[in-house]
Amino acid sequence: MSTAAAAVEAKNVSKIFGAGVGEVRALDNVSVTIRQNEFFTLLGPSGCGKTTLLRLIAGFEMPTEGSILLEGEEVAHLPPFKRPVNTVFQNYALFPHMSVAENIGFGLEMLGKPKTEVQQTVDAMLRLVRMEELKHRKTSQISGGQQQRVALARALAPRPKVLLLDEPLSALDYKLRKDMQLELKRMQHETGITFIFVTHDQEEALTMSDRIAVMSQGNILQIGSPDEIYERPADRFVADFIGETNFIEAEVIERIGEDGRIRLPSGVAVSHKLASNAGVGSRVTLAIRPERIDLVRADGETHLKGKVDNIVYFGTDTTFHVGLDSGQSVTVRVQNRRGHQEILQVGDVVGLTIAPEAMQILRD
Amino acid sequence: MAISGTQSQRGGTHVSAAEAAAAFERRETRTRWLLSAPALITLAVASIGPLLIVLVYSFLQKNPNGGVFWQFSTDAWFNVILQRDIFDDTLQFADAHLSIFWRSVKLSMGTTVLALIFGFPTAYFIATRPERTRELWLFLITIPFWTNLLIRTFAIQEVIRNEGIVNSLLLWVGIIDAPIQMMFTDFAIMMGMLYVFLPLMVLPLYASMEKLDFRLVEAGYDLYATRLQVLRRVIIPLVKPGIIAGSILVFIPSLGAYVTPRVLGGGKSLMLGNLIELQFGQGRNWPLGAALSMTLLCIVMVALLVYVRKTSRQGGAHG
Fold it and tell me: Chain A contact for B236, CB < 8 A?
């Protein structure tokens, strides 16, 4: 299996809609390799090109340039009904004139499978999505969450090589969405099918994916595992889009090989690994996650100092907005643990300490 | 005393509240009737009244000079399907009438099928245009409605007659040696009716296709259905109400068509409309004309009944 070709490979794919003045470049020379049995997420704000990339893989759109390989074979010219790929649509797109079972069996029927096999697979799929009792219902007679399951079962029934999911959870309410996230993960595990999941919800992406591609304006900015993306965002957009981040400007004051020292706005200098292009005197941006900052007494040894502007209680944790002397505001998140509450009040002066590995220097 | 007084007073307010509600209800009912009165009056004067007259006339005796004698008779109804032999007075089926009935149904069905074949792709084409241009296409579809029916029918005659455009063109190109006889055939009648009634097919078809969720079409392609399978398994079932409505709208006026078969079918190919006209004209048999009209009405009613039952069953299934 390890020597097998990638499940999906997009090579230098560009997609341009319209022409002339109204031309829109939805994808700009995008290349990505998605491995077998992977839960791969395309993450980005609306209009970033993630759905276009999905539709190119499904075959609903043809690339303007570049090629799309499915298990090593070029498919860019094939119509959707000739690609072993199925889609779970954003609005489910269930056939309203068919029952739940007929919807699920449609793909197999179109593939010309014998009736008994279709029946067996439909029953197995109904079990997989836990919908056995609703087999004969019309799709308009079941709830949104149930429609979602039917859409999933319908797309999985023909055992596609790759399953494409176009923001399938966006129409569900919070609780149901949480349940479905785990459910999807379970199904991907049970079926062993490669899932390509499109979402604009970073939390969804982080909890479900093996790897994530963060997209913006038709480009892929970073591909990596959830913790790579979260802990080591490559640039400002990724850092800002995934979770909450404090951006702090610093200056390089010393450099020996890869190692160097940078000066924080407070004047405190810390050691840090540097990129090759960051010479002495150049300015860099640090991305620091709010939960990686510790609040300490202001008279101790600190990296930054400031005054508490605002305290917001979230249940599991509390967020402090600390105004630095430079005028910048820094967000600090502290987990609420019993016996751990330091009584801090708005207006108190506090010190902030940050572990060196939590300071991520962004590329510009 | 004081207590009972309060009670009765309280009871009194209850009654008056109920009365007020009832009065409000009455006012509402009256408003509804008043609002629907114009439509009801029009229906009574222009539709039900004349129908009753025709029904009454069909049970009267014919006046050979036109009009009727006010004497009850079932002769006319009898003559719709039966006739007496002029020589030996034996009863026979009215072959002429029956064959005209049959021809009318046959040609109307043919026209409906043709309208469906031509109308379906047209409606699909319009429904898949960008929203801005759809209105223009719809507008073009309705252009034939602006011209008088008779003029349009003569225009068709100009196209298909022996010296007409089609034959001249084919002769000039050399595909045929002698003109093809198209005028005064069933083909000509169907052509004419198709031309006249096609918009009635396209418009309801378009209305239901416009509502069609084209993501379902994509879902069909995604699930390995070829273009033909998507058409048969997804599109046609979903636009069925439009297909049925369009078919009814073409079939019914085709059945009663009168000008088109008269002009394009010549004297030979009569349809029901012509047969009825004949009774009120040269035939001088108004009761028979009235009875034939009622028969036509019954055929139409049966067609409509089938339609209503079909669509209501579908509506129930859709939930």
Answer: no
Test A95 with B234 for CB contact under 8 angstroms: yes
Residue A1's pLDDT band (cuts 50, 70, 90):
very low
Residues of chain B with pLDDT under 50: 1-9, 11, 315-319
How many angstroms separate the most distant Cα atoms in chain B?
114
What interhelical angle do B186-210 and B149-160 show, nearest 10? 120
Averaged confidence pLDDT in chain A: 89
Domain end (from A218, A240, A262): A240
Looking at residue B317, its pLDDT comes to 42
Q: How far is A356 from chain B (nearest CA, A)?
A: 50
- CATH class in words for B91-318: mainly alpha
Residues A227 and A265 placed together within one structural domain of the fold: no
Asked if A177 contacts A168 with a C-beta cutoff of 8 angstroms, the reply is: no
Task: Render pLDDT for A141-186 as a digit per residue (tens, 0 to 9).
Answer: 899 889 999 999 999 999 999 999 999 888 888 888 888 898 899 8
Beta bridge partners of A69: A9, A74
B224, B233, B238 ranked by CB distance to A81: nearest: B224
Check CB contact of B315 with chain A, cutoff 8 Å: no
**Contact B310/A at CB under 8 A:** no
Q: What is the pLDDT of residue B7?
A: 47
The answer, for B211 touching chain A at a CB cutoff of 8 Å, is no
The CATH number assigned to the domain holding A208 equals 3.40.50.300
Query: Within this chain, do residues A105 and A13 fall inside the same structural domain, yes or no?
Result: yes
**For residue A361, which phi and psi values (nearest 5 degrees)?**
-80, 125
Average pLDDT over residues A307-325: 89
Q: Give the residue among B160, B247, B148, B239 at the shortest CA–CA distance from B197.
A: B247
Residue A319 distance to chain B (closest CA, Å):
44
User: SS3 sequence, A289-345?
Assistant: CHHHEEEEECCCCCCEEEEEEEEEECCCEEEEEEEECCCCEEEEEEECCCCCCCCCC
What is the reported pLDDT for B1?
Answer: 41
| pLDDT grade for A342, boundaries at 50, 70 and 90 | low
CATH number at residue A259: 2.40.50.100
Full domain range(s) for residue A324: 244-361
Q: Which of A192, A222, A240 is the last residue of a domain?
A: A240
**Radius of gyration in angstroms for the set of CA atoms belonging to chain B, rounded to a whole number:** 28
Structure pTM? 0.78
